[in-house]
Write a structure and sequence with these properties.
By secondary structure, the chain is α+β, with helices and mostly antiparallel strands. About 20% of the residues lie in helices and about 15% in strands. The relative contact order is 0.21.
């Protein structure tokens, strides 16, 4: 787990894989999901725009080995 990056969130500005990050370690920290990457005018953050333009990640493929 933690290889595909589909669950990446920002914790205090650092990208982490939420699937392997203990929730209790996020207590008291700033957590930003992809939904939070839009400015007040509704403009997409470049990362979110890239995600939309390239299509969804195939999460299942990361779990096949």
């Amino acid at each position: 787990m933690g290889e595909c990056g589909a669950c990446t969130v920002l914790v205090d500005g650092a990208g982490i894989n939420s699937c392997i990050f203990p929730a209790l370690e996020a207590e008291g920290k700033s957590v930003t999901t992809i939904e939070g990457l839009t400015d007040l005018e509704g403009n997409l953050h470049p990362f979110k725009a890239l995600s939309l333009n390239t299509g969804p990640s195939n999460v299942d493929s990361a779990h096949r080995a």
